[in-house]
């Protein structure tokens, strides 16, 4: 909003020229989202506690200590992230940019689905929320709508193509098949983050790392000079997503203040589904879908651990891991919760650096 209101006056007053700089507005989005999360955090958490007497229902099949240590902690804390993200993006982004609105559509839409799921869990005092098929159907509809919007806006031949990392300007055109492919990426990313959200601070750290990584990728992809130098696919207008990703980082930092062990609030599906969806749609717009699998490799590992566990048990009657997702396996091995969280963060940083390396190694 500030860009649209103040940048036209840049020729009259040099101070307004700052709002033309993407880096300045990204920094502004980070700080705005962070401060909003900080200041609203106690009020939002207090309100959630007043509405949730028993807190988030704990799954009986999970680690036993969770029933003792985490009982009574309120959920739906992702609502705080969405407020900070929304304020930071709407205040500092170019609101005439279609990519920004597409990203907000996915984030807020998935957040609404997650909120409904969390709400049903709380009022039923059960770990069962929305029916799985309905939940998935809603996610597909939202993702498909956003993907269709992006493809209409984006120029050919980039619109329905998949970029291959480590190769210079190599695009594989999927045609109409790109619609379900991109939708699968967005929905898959959303649910992968959802599976990772099982310990205090575990999901939000890698999400912020991935968001910061994609803020840089979006900036480079949207800049004709830098994308030409690096020989990566140029997507005019995608640079504005750096502001969106910056707001996600700021909102995540604010939430982490209250989610650090021992957590005062859980993000719930409200946060995990929306943040995963946000990363998914940004990767589609910036044409770095495959790189998302590298940068978000931790989420991929968590998802694979669940798939392997279920498949192994159904086929052989044996479990590969002591418990799935993967972080519960290490809990069962006796690792302390902070140890798991910090080590998983380290893995996320390493994977993010590897993802960034694809920008130059071509």
Describe how the helices and strands are arranged.
Elements: H1 2-6, H2 22-51, H3 64-69, H4 78-92, H5 98-124, H6 132-153, E1 161-163, E2 171-173, H7 178-196, H8 204-222, H9 224-230, H10 241-259, H11 268-285, H12 289-295, H13 297-316, H14 326-332, H15 337-357
Antiparallel strand pairs: 1-2
Structure notes:
This protein is mostly helical. It has one domain (2-357). The protein has 15 helices and 2 strands. A two-stranded antiparallel ribbon has the order 1-2. It is globular and about 60 Å long. It starts with a helix and ends in a 5-residue tail after the last helix.
As laid out across the biggest beta sheet, the strand order is 1-2
Uncertain regions: pLDDT < 50 for 5+ in a row? none
Number of helices: 15
> What value does the average pLDDT take?
91
Tally of discrete structural domains: 1
Question: Residue share in helices?
Answer: 55-70%
Total E-strand runs:
2
Q: What would you call the shape?
A: globular
Structural class: mainly alpha
Strand content: under 5%
| Most strands sheet | 2 strands, antiparallel
The SSE order reads: HHHHHHEEHHHHHHHHH
Rg value: 20 Å
